Amino acid sequence: MQTSYIAEYPAYHPEAAIIEYLHPLLLNKKITIILGTWCSDCQRELPRFLKVIDHAGFPYDQLTIISVDQEKSPGEEMKEVPNFTRIPVFILTNTDGSELGRITEIPEISLEHDLLALIKK
């Protein structure tokens, strides 16, 4: 995972206009990421997603990252995150825990665009 992070984070260039727009909208949100370090989609999308939220000034105390094991079924840590079958999953919630939406596996347009679409929904 470290090698992909080193390659993907600096190589990804999120759209600046969307990042600027996201900044105030993310301040009262929480994000949960479910990933597996062995998964190639996770290795590509996690560093990109972290760059998006870094540039948008997302507060990391409102971020939860859960890593699942390829060989085991999800355990107790997954009780609060039902209904996922593919990874990575980026789950956006309000501070009260109500889910606004998810980006699953790969974004439809781009991570920043899809994140904005979830907020505006």
TrEMBL record:
Record-linked InterPro entries: Thioredoxin-like_sf
Pfam families from the UniProt entry: Thioredoxin_9 (PF14595)
Protein name as annotated: Thioredoxin
Organism of derivation: Pedobacter antarcticus 4BY
